[in-house]
Design a protein that fits this description.
The complex is a heterodimer of chains A (748) and B (329). With 748 residues, chain A is mainly beta. Helix content of chain A is 4%, strand content 41%. Chain A is built from 2 helices and 29 strands. Chain A is globular and about 90 Å long. In chain B, α3 packs across α4. By secondary structure, chain B is of the alpha+beta class. Chain B is built from 7 helices and 13 strands. Chain B is globular and about 55 Å long.
Chain lengths: 748, 329
């Protein structure tokens, strides 16, 4: 028989060979392996800053064109049964496009973006870097199973407390990790000291000037039983600085240190499985943190600001300033395949405090909530996914199409989507979210149907940042990109005024057509209804009633006497009087041609938000051959958004997005395996329109040449200049984005 | 070593008479539509008693603890169902390489943590059929249950199937070369075709897979099994941890130490490897973390029953869901 002639001997050979390959297991050995990646990006944004689509890190490049390669060498040495060493030597895509001609190509006098620093900058000289050095000890003691010294991704903890941090190098972080167990693994523990990443793990995304002693300490104890599990976890983060206050500055007996940032978290988890079809689990965490961002001022008697004054209306930091205590919890119920019917239902209650803080919580790649959340096609405030795009020089980075799919949720404002491409998953913060998600699902044969209903209220619903006596232009809250635009703005949890509710509903289906290897067809309809009254009390209006009488009469600028100290006149300033020859008859005498440059902020409805958002998705995937898988997806987004009028101006920091958004995205993907090499390709075409509706009460302007060149609009097109000089176009905008990513991965 | 194995296998195939009879854990299916349902003890997701999960946070005790194996006719095929002690995790949106590949992009079937091997003895003739599990499972099948068909549920079926073919071809060529025979190109091409045909005839990688809670179901067509699954066939069922970021390069399996979609076994678990390796025995220790065993046998004893002196792998017994006295259909 052919079977006996061919396959059986072959399998036997494999078994024997495998044994032979490891016969020398007891001998110390060093094994070297490697992986090489080559990536090709193409897109019509014509960026060539790096071989990644996206970053917000100042000074780093982003691009949608170019090809680059990188390689990593993996070293693994089993010194003995009790000692194993691992390390990697890794180059990076960064700005190492092939056009750099091997790491050369300096262009004098230009910023180090796009590889133009050649050999003088490690990001463009094809450098190879040491990464991931880890020694694992297995001493054989009863009290400890393993001791890991060095690099680790610390993924064995908890995304609410200590989570996976970053993917570019999953093992960026280094520390000590002790793991042990008892009673046949019924009880396990992990205890760690992680050296605090100075790149981001502190106020203002740094850990100050004195960094080497900063650390995060973590401990986790788990008990696993047949019907239930319990776990306790704790974390303490300590960022210190050298003492710089005059009364403590003594150096003869060693230097004193002081706290810049402290963060404690305790938590508990449980899971109960009372029957084969029931799963119940819950998690509770409580955090404390004290953040003194200025404690690193380099000088005697550092001039610290009060935390309440630390951030302006657009502050960036992974943590709020000052001293805060808060908690986070969630409860999950799952009923699976009820009565063998194929019907399941899962539900989740959640409440994430507005200042719940764990500095080492997962920044991406974890999904702490059941809900699908927002879609990554709308990741930034502007209609084209630009942040601060109202000002010239801030075009969209990721592009009109955004990222693919829906976002995953992480329990931190320290969200990290840096150095990603459009085909990767976006992470969004859930700080402040509270609500419920219900997900019913039904499977019958080749058909899978599921739905989701989610209601989200917010712990961050407040007026004047919850401190009415404090001017809203100074706050303890880092607001990042704030809360305007169609989407959620992935790391924005705070806004000065918020009265928001979100409802999310979706139905999705998947069906395998019994043809060939099975054609996988899928589709989804998703609806989001979101309202936010923002400033909802007239006492917070910036100016006195009737301050701007209209009719070409200038505003009196009398500050609202009822303002309790929030002083919104500082952010919602009155407009000047302008004149525009709107009907182009050579004069400005016609009605509406003389008036306010923007609508005065004189109503609590001026900043109201009302979003009605629909997504329709349909697609199919098929294993075209044993080596090749293909997938085609079409998505249509229809978002009707009222997001304040010209009085609000998206806080005059971003492009206004009020109006009708119609976005189409067609994505074609392939994966191909060829004898040890894996290839992938994603092509996406995104097109659509934005028809702005910014309301009335102001006199539009025509774009002059300077405005046109700065804002990228047509000379003579209608729009208006905002408080900070930014330009918002009033004309319908058409978008077209083509982009492609192809990559090859070979392990050797 | 190969000859030793072959000799031993042949000897065992004649020595072993009949399969240990139907498992007491087999039970009449409560659902009349179910062909059979076999339960497995909870809390035995530790292989030979020592094996531990990788430390990457994806696994908890019980994650791959198989508690039931069932089959039911479905259309023109059979729907096999495996139930675990814990809900099956959906593939996360976690990036696994510098190219930006995410687990949920390549694990398209709704699971990513495990492989399930099902080796089916359909003719119930001792010694008739194949005696080995897939490469790098480090296990053999008891000759009494030599299998005619294997169903391998794995997160990346097409890639794993291709890898299996490539590994077989490479090792056959290496073996021939060791014997002093160099194969010509036409011989290699013929061998490649034969292997491809044989793999596709004898080993099925399901692509119609359904995940709900703790249960995973996978469809196997009648044309592969020769008809609906029967309760008087013998089934060897093993669960192993899957390497989702599997390398399909032939050489790298030696670096990773694992192999065909299974991770390396080391003395103590790490982020990427399973723990519980025994000093001097790593090459013989099975990679299954949970298997189905017939009544009277203990999983831990079966999985440690390799022969250090003879350098032979464990032999996994099959389970026959229906009592042997029942009439064959």
């Amino acid at each position: 028989m052919k079977w006996n002639r061919i396959l059986v001997p072959a399998v036997l050979v494999l078994a024997a060979a495998s044994v032979a390959a490891q016969a020398a297991e007891d001998q110390p050995k060093l094994v070297i392996g490697g992986t090489t990646y080559t990536k090709y990006l193409w897109g019509n944004l014509q960026y060539d800053g790096s071989v990644y689509n996206f970053t917000t890190v100042p000074g780093e490049g982003f691009g949608d064109n170019g090809a680059g390669s990188e390689v990593e060498l993996l070293l693994d040495a089993k010194v003995s049964k009790k000692v194993e060493v691992r390390a990697r030597l890794h180059s990076r895509f960064n700005q190492n496009q092939w056009t750099n001609f091997g790491g050369f190509g300096i262009v004098a006098g230009t910023p180090c973006v796009g590889g133009d620093c050649g050999e003088s900058d490690p990001r463009s000289n094809q450098y190879v870097k040491l990464r991931g050095v880890n020694v694992t000890l297995t001493p054989g003691y009863k009290w400890v199973d393993t001791i890991q010294i060095g690099a680790n991704d610390f993924g064995m903890f908890d995304p609410f407390v200590i989570g996976r941090i970053r993917y570019i190098d999953r093992d960026n972080a280094s520390g000590l990790l002790f793991s042990g167990s008892a009673a046949h693994k019924k009880f396990t523990y992990d205890v760690t000291r992680i050296s605090l990443p100075r790149l981001w793990a502190g106020p203002n995304f740094n850990t100050g000037l004195y960094t080497a002693a900063d650390a995060a300490y973590g401990a986790q104890f788990k008990g696993n039983f047949k019907m239930f599990d319990v776990a306790l976890i704790g974390e303490y983060v300590y960022d210190i600085e050298l003492e710089n206050r005059g009364e403590f500055y003594v150096i003869d007996q060693g230097r004193s240190v002081r706290t810049r940032f402290r963060n404690s978290v305790i938590g508990a988890r449980f899971a109960v499985r009372p029957a084969s079809w029931v799963d119940i689990s819950g998690q509770y965490y409580k955090s404390w943190h004290d953040s003194i961002p200025d404690a690193n001022l380099n000088g005697i008697g550092g001039n610290e600001q009060a935390p309440a004054n630390f951030f302006g209306l657009s502050g960036f930091s992974p943590v709020t300033a000052g001293n805060h205590t808060d908690d986070a919890w969630k409860l999950d119920l799952g009923f699976n395949d009820l009565g063998g019917s194929g019907f399941s239902i899962n539900a989740e209650l959640f409440d994430i405090g507005s200042t719940y803080t764990s500095m080492m919580a997962a920044r991406r790649e974890s999904d702490v909530l059941l809900t699908e959340g927002h879609d990554a096609a709308f990741a930034f405030p502007g209609p084209s996914n630009a942040a601060f795009g109202v000002f010239g020089g801030n075009p969209t980075r990721i592009g009109y199409g955004g990222w693919m799919g829906n976002a995953v949720q992480v329990a931190t404002i320290n969200v990290d989507n840096e150095f990603t491409d459009f085909d990767e998953t976006l992470a969004e913060t859930v700080i402040g979210w509270k609500g419920i998600t219900v997900v019913p699902a039904w499977r019958h044969g080749a058909l899978e149907l599921s739905a989701e209903g989610t209601y989200i209220d917010y712990n961050t619903n407040w007026q004047a940042f919850g401190s009415p006596g404090q001017p809203v232009s100074t706050t303890v809250y880092p607001v990042h990109e704030l809360d305007t635009g169609v989407g959620h703005n992935f790391r924005s949890a705070y806004a000065p005024f918020q009265d928001k509710k979100t409802m999310l509903a979706l139905v999705k289906a998947r069906y395998v057509i019994d043809v060939g290897k099975g054609i996988d067809i899928y589709g989804k309809v998703k609806y989001i209804k979101e309202t936010d009254n923002r400033l909802n009390d007239s006492k917070f209006l910036p100016f006195a009633p009737g301050d701007c009488p209209g009719g070409g009469v200038a505003c009196a600028n009398v500050v609202n006497p009822n303002d309790p100290g929030a002083n919104t006149s500082g952010i919602y300033g009155n407009p000047p009087i302008i004149s525009t020859d709107l009907n182009k008859d050579g004069d400005t005498l016609d009605p509406g041609e003389v008036g306010y440059q923007w609508k005065p902020f004189d109503s609590i409805s001026d900043d109201d938000r009302d979003l009605k958002y629909w997504l329709y998705q349909v697609g199919a995937g098929y294993q075209l051959s044993n080596d090749l898988y293909g997938q085609l997806t079409y998505e249509y987004f229809d978002a009707n958004l009222k997001d304040g009028n010209t009085a609000f101006q998206a806080y005059q920091l971003h492009e206004m997005a009020s109006g009708q958004h119609k976005k189409n995205i067609m994505t074609l993907g392939f994966r191909y395996v060829l004898a040890g090499a894996e290839f992938g390709l994603q092509y996406q075409y995104a097109w659509g329109t934005f028809d702005p509706d910014f309301g009335g009460g102001f006199t539009p302007q025509f774009a002059d040449l300077a405005t046109a060149q700065s804002a990228g609009v047509r000379v003579g097109s209608l729009g208006f200049h905002g408080r900070f000089g930014g330009w918002n176009s009033l004309e319908e905008r058409d978008f077209r984005q083509n982009r492609l990513k192809a990559f090859m991965k070979v392990q050797f | 070593m190969k000859k030793t194995n072959v000799t031993l296998m042949l000897a065992l195939s004649t020595a072993v008479t009949l399969l240990p009879h139907a498992s007491a854990v087999a039970k009449e299916a409560p659902d009349p539509a179910t062909t059979f349902s076999v339960s497995d003890p909870a809390g035995d997701d530790h292989g030979d008693g020592m094996m531990t999960y990788p430390l990457n946070g994806d696994f908890e005790p019980g994650s791959l603890d198989m508690v039931a194996f069932a089959a039911k006719p479905k259309g023109n095929g059979t729907l096999f169902e495996v139930t675990f002690a814990r809900p099956i995790k959906r593939p996360p949106a976690r990036t696994i390489d510098a190219g930006g590949t995410q687990i949920n992009q390549i694990a398209k079937l709704g699971f990513y943590e495990f492989n399930i091997d099902v080796y089916i003895d359909t003719d119930r003739k001792p010694g008739s059929g194949a005696l080995n599990a897939l490469p790098d499972r480090r296990a053999a099948i008891a000759p009494a249950n030599a299998w005619e068909r294997a169903v391998i549920l794995t997160p990346r079926p097409s890639e794993t199937q291709q890898a299996l073919k490539a590994m077989m071809l490479r090792d056959l060529r290496r073996d021939k070369r060791a014997e002093g025979t160099r194969l010509a190109q036409d011989q290699i091409d013929a061998l490649r075709r034969d292997i491809s045909t044989d793999v596709e005839t004898r080993v099925f990688f399901p692509t119609r897979v359904y995940v709900a809670g703790r249960k995973i179901s996978f469809f196997v067509p009648d044309e592969f099994l020769g008809g609906p699954a029967r309760s008087d066939w013998a089934y060897v069922v093993g669960v192993s941890v899957a390497t989702i970021d599997v390398s399909f390069d032939i050489q790298s399996k030696y670096f990773q130490g694992g192999g065909l979609a299974v991770p390396e076994l080391t003395y103590s678990a790490s982020e990427e490897t399973m723990g519980g390796g025994r000093e001097g025995e790593l090459d013989l220790q099975p990679r299954f973390i949970d298997i189905l065993v017939p009544e009277g046998r203990k999983q831990e004893e079966v999985l440690i029953d390799y022969d250090l002196k003879a350098d032979t792998l464990v032999q996994l017994p099959g389970v026959v869901p229906m009592a042997p006295s029942a009439p064959r259909q």
